[in-house]
Predict the 3D structure of the following.
Amino acid sequence: MFIKINEVTLFYQRIGFGNPLIMLHGNGETHEIFNRSVSLLQEYFTVYAIDFREHGNSSKVSELHYKDHADDIYEFINQLNIKSPVYYGFSDGGIVGLMLASQYPDLFSKLIVSGPNINPKGLKTYARLFMKLVYGIKKSQKVRMMLNEPDISISDLSKIKIPTYITGGSFDVITKNHLCLIQENIKNSVLKIFKYHTHSSYIVNSDIIGKYIIEVCK
């Protein structure tokens, strides 16, 4: 399905019945990374799995910023009149979730974010160096965004009041200290580390995160 928002067209999948659940993927991916989890989640939720602008079947753009992603998702929810959805975001999707929950405290009923960072320093050094190398070769705006953004403050995090669940892998590219920093500054939040998993292994083409979402939303 397609929807026109903020002068771009976003592609999304709607599937299932029940309370609404918004799902957002990471950088360079599409909603399809959630297919295995969605097969479980559709029994409990009406799932809206969206492709960010410049990703999947959504519109291409000349510049890419996290604020634009956040504005798109806010308007998506308003246009479709989705009331108090659960929000799940992986990586870039998690960043956008933090931004929206801090700016619009009553937008979501619950916030679940996997491997988010509030600034580029949250990434392990080797990951940032690799991104710089990739950007030097490809000049990708998706990589440039990760190198320079986001800039979410501690004050922003403190504005999030809804139940919040933060996850990471024990071998994540986001440092554990950074994930702890996020958790410690969101009042009603918990942090879960998935042992022996990377940034994406429990999410991409996996039903592990789907089972976790069901567990925390019971």
